[in-house]
Design brief:
Layout: H1 3-23, H2 27-90, H3 93-96, H4 101-120, E1 123-126, E2 138-145, E3 154-159, E4 161-164, E5 167-170, E6 172-178
Length: about 180
Amino acid sequence: MSTSEEKNEIEHEEQQVTESAESNSDAPENAELAEALREKDQFRALAQRAQADLVNYRRRIESEQDESRRRNQRRIVLRFADVIDQLSVALSEDNLKDAGASWLEGIQAVHKNFVSTLAAEGFERFECVGEDFDPRKHEALLSRPTPEYEPNTVITELRAGYMHDDEIVRPAQVEIAIAPPEGE
């Protein structure tokens, strides 16, 4: 039986009880019946509020658990991102001069595996060289006067930035262009 059918049945029973109470001329019984109906309505309202509170509590707990899961996932991913950064430094051209071909292939495979693992979890590295500086996406560590770029343009990425679900997880550390001094 659906909730609306139950409600209609209860209202019908209440109406029958009320009609029989009105037809009965005994005043004390009518007062007791009216009191019982009032208490019943109070208990029903209390039960409905308790049920609504329980539903709200479940939703809040689920939301908090999801947020906790995302925080933990981001913490772990940031550790992977640091490893990827270290591998990127190891793979830089300056460090490759003395490396053997098999060592280089192994390190490149490890680097590629880390990057694809992060991408499979929804974490994407974003490119920023040539973009306007955005403090939500970039962390400016250095600035350099240059006529080649407009002021506040990212000219070098020092450490990659990562996004997850269109949200910045780790801002990119960058060098930005500033206007050259007057007279140069």
